UniProtKB/TrEMBL annotation:
UniProt subunit comment: Homodimer.
Listed CDD domains: GST_C_Delta_Epsilon
Alphabetically ordered keywords of this record: Transferase
Domain GST N-terminal: 2-83
A family per Pfam: GST_C
Species of origin: Xenocatantops brachycerus
Top-level taxon: Eukaryota
Residue ranges of the TM segments: none
Designated name of the protein: Glutathione-S transferase delta8
GST C-terminal domain ranges (all copies): 89-214
Region forming the signal peptide: none
Lineage: Eukaryota, Metazoa, Ecdysozoa, Arthropoda, Hexapoda
Enzyme class: transferase
Length: 214
């Protein structure tokens, strides 16, 4: 099988989710980094592949898939040796889907804090409060549970943990996920769940460090 192609940005948490899931299930990706996502993704060629002009974009035998969570679902459903990361059983899958939709809102809340800070502005305290509210919700979801959606780790755990890692962009925001005890313990479990997760987190932190040094 020819490697699947991923249009990628090294610092994008959604791209990292796709790279992680592919690595965990043993799918090779040919990575094409977008140097300037605001420019490169708006060419006529790229807009045909993804009218939303966002990364990640997965190319698989002429099919183009955008949205990181959709790509993760697709990869596991098509290429994984088993369905533990995204169960076929609808009673189990629906819980994973719920947590993925939670993550979609959660990540956008983080972006609403991150973007002003990245642009040299002050973050809106009300936006910070919304992120902290989501972390409290996450803490409740994890009450007496090892994982977010069932008794095994799933793509939902990976997605939410990677969203939380985006907070490392803004260490002075006053947002600390580890203040939530269940979240803190769960993050530790996710980080040690697979070598590919630890590897990806290390690469992300190194890329973040290089960006801040520029």
């Amino acid at each position: 099988m020819a490697p699947l192609k991923l249009y990628n940005h090294p610092l994008s948490p959604p791209c990292r989710l796709v790279r992680l899931v592919a690595g965990v299930i043993g799918v090779d990706l040919k990575i094409e980094d977008m140097k300037d996502v605001y420019k490169d993704l708006k060419t006529p060629e790229m807009l045909k592949k993804n009218p939303q002009h966002t990364v990640p974009i997965l190319e698989d035998n002429g099919i183009y898939i955008s949205e990181s969570r959709a790509i993760a679902m697709y990869l596991v459903s098509k290429y994984a040796k088993d369905d533990s990361l995204y169960p076929k059983d609808l009673n189990k899958r629906v819980l994973v889907d719920q947590r993925l939709f939670f993550d979609q809102d959660f990540f956008h809340r983080i972006l609403n804090v991150f973007m002003p800070v990245f642009q040299g502005k002050q973050a809106d305290p009300s936006k910070i409060e919304k992120v902290n509210d989501s972390l409290e919700t996450l803490n409740r979801m994890l009450d007496s549970k090892q994982w977010l959606a069932g008794d095994k780790i799933t793509i939902a755990d990976y997605a939410v943990a990677i969203s939380i890692s985006a907070l490392e962009f803004i260490p002075d925001s006053g947002i600390d996920a580890t203040k939530q005890p269940n979240v803190k313990q769960w993050l530790s479990r996710v980080e040690s769940s697979h070598p590919k997760y630890a590897e990806g987190l290390k690469e992300y932190r190194e890329a973040l460090k290089k960006m801040k040094q520029k």
